């Protein structure tokens, strides 16, 4: 039965994302714009929604549909972790992450003071194998994690340490959208990020953020961070060993810590990912699909794949950390 809040007949098959079968009559952009309010309400209610049969044909279709769902416009990306290809109108390619590697569950830009409340993924070319964008209910994940661990992260927050260079991830000029070091410094000062320039022109940053968020509409408490995904132990062991040998523990491209600065262990990363796995729902992509994700309530990932995969991304509904959590704590040194 349709939910009274959104008036759409959304199916919830076990182990798969909430889905809506769409007959767009050959005009997916018009269909999306006509149903925008109902779709947005459904995403709040379900945490995510996969539109199947929408029939997005190309990047122009996808961009228009994503913009049609974002009444406040699409957001530019700042503090990018890995490169994306920009498209006109505020649309991006999905993150350029090696096809054979898993991209762990995370909430987009949850290490920022500002982040999108809604993520939108439009599939133009589905891979031959794998490559799904699975999701996980962040409220259920929070409940399943050990209470003492959650309590510690709620007290301390979590810390992200980054070294911007040319080996892994986006260079600082791309991450901050400028070639001007002074503009980067100003951004860091206004976004509670400690920074230090390196002799080789690289940049190291450190920022401390809340690990648990309260949904701005429903009030539901959610595990909201990238503690496991951006930890050094997600790197291939041989790559990790090489980078430590080359740059030292303090020069790794990224790692996460407890808010007090102590390391997050490999065992803890494995525990968090195991809880995510137990709450994961997945559906293989089909060309023309559109997946809408509430970025606070729902984590997302990307599975390894074979063949060509083209998924475009739009970010919408900006939120500030103070809307979902206490004021971000100062960086622990």
Automatic annotation (TrEMBL):
Keywords: Antibiotic biosynthesis, Dioxygenase, Iron, Oxidoreductase. It holds the Pfam family TauD. Residues 28-314 form the TauD/TfdA-like domain. InterPro entries: AlphaKG_dependent_hydroxylases, TauD-like_sf, TauD/TfdA-like. GO terms for biological process: antibiotic biosynthetic process. SUPFAM superfamilies: Clavaminate synthase-like. This is Alpha-ketoglutarate-dependent taurine dioxygenase.
